[in-house]
């Protein structure tokens, strides 16, 4: 087919093609037949219509953090919706309307200006819409649950080129499936999400030498199992590279880091939040240093120190049951033999585990721990990830959290067979020809 028949998609070798293909995950191949950046809902409708008439699959991405999660983008058309519209916060209803393409760094300043925040992820560079559609595991999650449960409406362009607004009252089945169903329903152009009041957060990081993990890790888990739900924390083994940008005291070392947040929704709750953070640190051995302190909610995305520039990486993830003493020993032994950049356990429980009466396809996580690890692409990293996975296999639940899955060959089951069947039926109803089938997250058990 002549490239002129694929307008508005640009062909390979053009600046427009390169801009539309740019992705945060540099390890995922992105080589579509044509690519287009949509700046309006009308642009999206044109793109969908072109792909349907050309008989070519249509793939969708914004920031490209999860580009490796579904099948490689080869031979398809690629659409990048970056809608030229502002984030609109309504302080009266405590909601925000977020156009496709906006990152959490675009949303948070607008919310914080009204004493509000969102149940965002640990990185400000992640696309807000993709994060919410894939569930969302936030450092506010033990207080407010899976972030997708806070979504109030979703506007999308279907495979037929129709603009549809879904909510609990309008197209409720599609609205249910969109929230954690695994993609492939259309091109989402706007999400309306409930915001939550937030005065301050107590956040920061405590650091130990990695040799202390055998004591600190189990102590953290014991504390986490009965912790108040306003705190969500993460314990990570980090291999810190010897870079000029890294503090000299940390550069070139393997360290154990405890970070996260305690929510203080009002000024009256700040003293309690400080006490919770202090009790958490007191339950562990004394760290080398700690930066845990009250801060504005806009600072929380910096706490986890996620990269802000595109990088190549490979990662793995599991949802885990509580680790017994033998489990900790196996994990630390396996992790200690690797060159992985990060091996993380994130605290779940609290509201994460509770079903939401109006929740979507992915609405809760029953496991108490989320495991995630990453390294630079290569054979050594693949072997290291496999070794840690094998050590944790006896404690795995068989499920994963969608936003943490990195590669389409990995196990990434997020719900049971009954939910899967319902999702598939709805997906077929809205896209019977499978125009968006390439964007569907693969469900693999092993």
How would you describe this structure in keywords?
446 residues, 8-stranded antiparallel beta sheet, 5-stranded antiparallel beta sheet, globular
Task: Explain this structure.
The protein is an alpha+beta fold and 446 residues long. The protein is built from 12 helices and 20 strands. Strands 13, 14, 15, 16, 17, 18, 19 and 20 form an 8-stranded antiparallel β-sheet that branches. A hairpin with a 4-residue loop joins β6 (88-90) and β7 (95-99). α7 (213-224) crosses α10 (325-336). The longest helix is centred in the first third of the chain and has 14 residues, at 41-54. The model has no long low-confidence stretch (mean pLDDT 94). It comes from Catenuloplanes niger. Its cofactor is FAD. This is FAD/FMN-containing dehydrogenase.
How many H/I helical runs? 12
Biggest sheet details: 8 strands, antiparallel
> Which structural class is indicated by helix and strand composition?
alpha+beta
Output mean pLDDT. Answer: 94
Question: What distance separates the N and C termini?
Answer: 39 Å
Domain FAD-binding PCMH-type: 28-198
GO molecular function: FAD binding; oxidoreductase activity
Keywords: FAD, Flavoprotein, Oxidoreductase
Protein name: FAD/FMN-containing dehydrogenase
